[in-house]
Design brief:
By secondary structure, this protein is mostly helical. It folds into 2 domains: about 130 residues, no CATH class; about 70 residues, Orthogonal Bundle (Arc Repressor Mutant, subunit A), CATH 1.10.10. The chain is about 80% helix and about 5% strand. It is built from 7 helices and 2 strands, in the order H-H-H-H-H-H-H-E-E. A two-stranded antiparallel sheet has the order 1-2. Strand 1 and strand 2 form a beta hairpin. Helix 1 packs antiparallel against helix 2, helix 2 packs antiparallel against helix 3 and helix 2 packs parallel to helix 4. It is flat.
């Protein structure tokens, strides 16, 4: 396929690359002012802009798949503000030669917190995408099984549904068992930490916790979670 520079899509990609390059320079310079490490300043700047691009691109992918994009818009907004903050600080430093007091005071906090927040946010999205992919694979397997049953004969739709429900129930029971074991050793763990440990989304862990408390297998007191054995 012949490359056309003045194709609209190619121009959009070119504009995106140039914008990222310009933003990277500014963010890297500001990040480096925290501890004087220029190399790490570039690493942090690339992480912020790459994360922002990944979130923005994921919105397009999820919209096509008709999936929820609310949390993605939240992430795009948050890291856009961080990027704007860094670029604004660079502009002030370049033109005025110094930063206002409020930026000097807030810079270490904002820049230090941005990467951990990005890691947690992207980890949650990756976990959610992985679960969605598993669910899609299960639906596709059922569709193929139904098609084969219709053409060649085989298990009924009801049997396939029962088998899928049994598999889902076993997976859920195993995940809840891992959750209880984790909370027994880490009673003060957060829902997000528990989700990362058992490879489930935060919302799923919240449902598990409610069910386990309702079953009387888990309680929460002043010291954190208490597993009832």
């Amino acid at each position: 396929m012949k490359f056309k520079l003045f194709d609209v899509q190619n121009l959009l990609w070119l504009a995106l690359v140039l914008a990222l390059v310009g933003s990277l320079k500014h963010l890297a310079a500001i990040f480096a002012t925290v501890d004087g490490n220029t190399a790490m300043g570039w690493v942090q700047a690339v992480a912020i802009d790459a994360g922002l691009f990944a979130l923005a691109y994921s919105i397009r992918v999820r919209k096509t798949a008709r999936r929820s994009i609310k949390q993605l818009w939240f992430g795009v907004g948050l890291f856009s503000l961080i990027s704007i903050y860094g670029n604004y600080a660079y502009g002030l430093l370049a033109t005025a030669g110094q930063l206002p007091g409020w930026i000097v005071a807030s810079k270490p906090v904002i820049l230090a917190a941005s990467l951990p927040i990005l890691v947690l946010f992207l980890s949650e999205l990756l976990s959610d995408d992985r679960q969605h992919a598993q669910a899609e694979a299960e639906r596709e397997a059922k569709r193929v099984a139904r098609a084969e049953q219709k053409e060649y004969g085989g298990p009924s739709d009801l049997t396939l549904l029962d088998q899928a429900n049994e598999t889902r129930a076993r997976d859920k029971e195993a995940a809840q068992a891992r959750l209880l074991a984790f909370l027994k050793e880490n009673p003060e763990a957060t829902t997000r930490q528990a989700g990362r440990h058992i490879d489930r989304a935060k919302s799923t862990v919240g449902l598990y916790l409610s069910e386990l408390q309702g079953d009387g297998r888990l309680h929460k007191n002043g010291n954190g979670w208490e597993v009832v054995t």
